[in-house]
Specification:
The protein folds into 2 domains: 54 residues; 184 residues, MucB/RseB, C-terminal domain (Phosphorylase Kinase, domain 1), CATH 3.30.200. Helix content is 43%, strand content 21%. The chain contains 7 helices and 8 strands, in the order ααααβαβαββββββα. An 8-stranded antiparallel beta sheet has the order 1-6-7-8-5-4-3-2, with helices on both faces. β3 and β4 form a beta hairpin. α1 packs across α3 and α4 runs parallel beside α5. The longest helix is centred in the first third of the chain and has 25 residues. The protein starts with 7 loop residues before the first helix and ends with a helix.
């Protein structure tokens, strides 16, 4: 593979510092010839650094005794991880996992992460074709919608404004997610393209708050953890538009 055929996976690996020296050199050549791409990746690194600065101090606090399981009762995880990983087969996931995870906890966290992305993508695919009932509560009742979903999730949530990108809020709905409530906001542009923002309470044992990317059957998603909530922005829009929308959403959630 030459420097002219650098993949998106390699660009994300460059951000995470996970490339082999030969491919890193090729990516550097590519980025030198594409300054806009380099700036995009530098922006990702800046966002990742800010997320770590905000949330990493709390992650090193010891787990309260009330939340610890005694050794004799600690559940066995390997088969659970394999089952969830099998369900999640077909996803292309990019991003780093923090090195200080114990191997078992990292496996559980990755399985939960894949399940989260699978749920978000499934909800997107199910509801975007709907013509008469794409949402449960429409945008004319946005204040009620946001208050209702915030109450059900147990955390404040908001519907970002994406009008600068040509997308209007259609409304949203409440969804189930592994026995927990999840929220979905849906947006549409003048051409009928739809975008969904999926949110639920944060993933267990997830210490990596970086932006990540997933793709299945041509549908792309950016997902990340922001405090107590995990988000996934999904759409069949092409990488540049979804990239811009993800940054717009993140900036509004973190003014």
């Amino acid at each position: 593979m030459s420097a002219d055929s650098v993949s998106e996976a390699e660009l994300h690996a460059w951000v995470d510092g996970r490339l082999e020296p030969a491919r890193r050199a090729a990516v550097e050549v590519y980025l030198a010839a594409h300054p806009a791409e380099r700036q995009r990746l530098v922006d990702y690194q800046s966002i990742d650094a800010e997320l770590h600065r905000l949330f990493d101090p709390a992650l090193d606090e010891p787990l309260p005794d009330t939340l610890r399981l005694p050794p004799a009762r600690r559940p066995v995880r390997p088969l659970m991880w394999l089952g969830r990983a099998a369900v999640a087969a077909g996803f292309v996931l990019f991003g780093g996992v923090l090195g200080w995870f114990a191997h078992q906890r990292a496996g559980d966290a990755l399985a939960a992460e894949r399940a989260f992305v699978r749920q978000a993508l499934a909800a997107h695919v199910v509801y975007i074709p709907e013509v008469r009932h794409p949402v449960e509560v429409d945008a004319s009742q946005q204040q009620h919608l946001v208050a209702w979903l915030s109450k059900r999730l147990g955390k404040p949530i908001q519907a970002p404004v994406l009008e600068s990108l040509g997308f209007q809020l259609l409304g949203g709905r409440l969804l189930p997610a592994d026995g927990q409530p999840a929220a979905q906001f849906m947006y549409q542009d003048a051409g009928g393209r739809r975008l969904t923002l999926y949110a639920r309470q944060g993933l267990p044992d997830n210490r990596d708050t970086a932006f990540r990317f997933a793709e299945q059957d041509g549908v792309e998603a950016f997902y990340w953890v922001d405090g107590d909530l995990a988000y996934a922005l999904i759409g069949d829009l092409g990488w540049p538009m979804l990239d811009r929308a993800a940054h717009a959403v993140y900036q509004q959630l973190n003014p």
